[in-house]
Amino acid sequence: MKNEAKIGITVLLAILVAIVGFRFMRDVPIFRQTLEVSAVFDRGDGINRGSLVNLKGVKVGSVSRVNLTPDNRVRVTMQLNEDLRIPVNSEAHLTSLGIVEGKSIVLHLGDSENIVQYGGEIEGVYIEGVTEVLGSKGEELAGDVSASLSQLNQFLQQLNKTLDDDTRQSVDQTLKNADSAMQTIAETLEKNKQDIDQAISSASRTMMQLDTLATDNRPRVDSLLASLEENVNELHKVRTELETASVNLNQILEKINSGEGTMGRLVNDPSLYENLDQLSKEMNELVKGINEDPGRYLKHMSIIEIF
Amino acid sequence: MHYLNELGKYSSLLYQALRSSTEFSTYRKNLFQELVKIGYDSVPIIMLTGVFTGSVMTLQSAYQLQSAFIPISTIGAITSESILIELAAVISSLVLAGKVGARVATELGTMRVSEQIDALESMGFNSVSFLVVPRVLAGILMFPVLYIVASVFGIGGGVAAGFFSGQVPPADFLQGARMYFYPWNVIFGFTKMIVFGYIITSVACYKGYFARGGAEGVGKSTTDATVLGCILVLLADFVLAALLL
Question: Nearest residue on chain B to A101, judged by CA atoms?
Answer without folding.
Answer: B71
